[in-house]
Amino acid sequence: MPAMKPIRIFVAIELDDVVKAALGRIQGQLKKGGMSYVARWVSPQSIHLTLKFLGDVSPDRVEEIKRAIQQACMQCAPFSVSLSDTGCFPHFRRPRVIWVGLDGDVETLAQLQRSVESELVGVGLTAERRRFQPHLTLARIKRNARPHECARLGEFISMAMIDESVSMVVREVSLMRSELHPSGAVYTCLAAISLDG
Question: Which of 119, 51, 108, 55 shows the shortest CA–CA distance to 77?
Fold first, then answer.
């Protein structure tokens, strides 16, 4: 029997409509700065909070991965997060990724991420080398953007107004599939696992 074609998957927290609408408003503010053409904007409907990117995995491992995530979710009760500030990687003078940060119960969020990481490493998946920095990606800067355009967009990002009262309760973790198309990535939820702490 031929080997199954790998699928590209990741573990994430899906956002509710209130948060997505708020992210859309922040994008609208940033686009008014006149530099919106230097970035590829993520549709608010596609924005999520990634806990762990797994990359290409054989479909026959999905059940085992789902069980590992269930194990991690059993150790965590539902918790609340809110929007905090805008920022960029690596920094405002040379933005590559534009994001919104999170506030609220970020310690529980970090513990959940560590549990997910540890359970998945336990079933043989690669450990993440970078430190977990919870963020919601609004846009990625185009490769051909000029340094002065990037710096100008960085100024707008640093001054963006955020409604910090926007929050949501995290009740589940999703195992997501990502399919890359010329028009952008298409995401499908393969499993939604409740937090049962």
Answer: 108
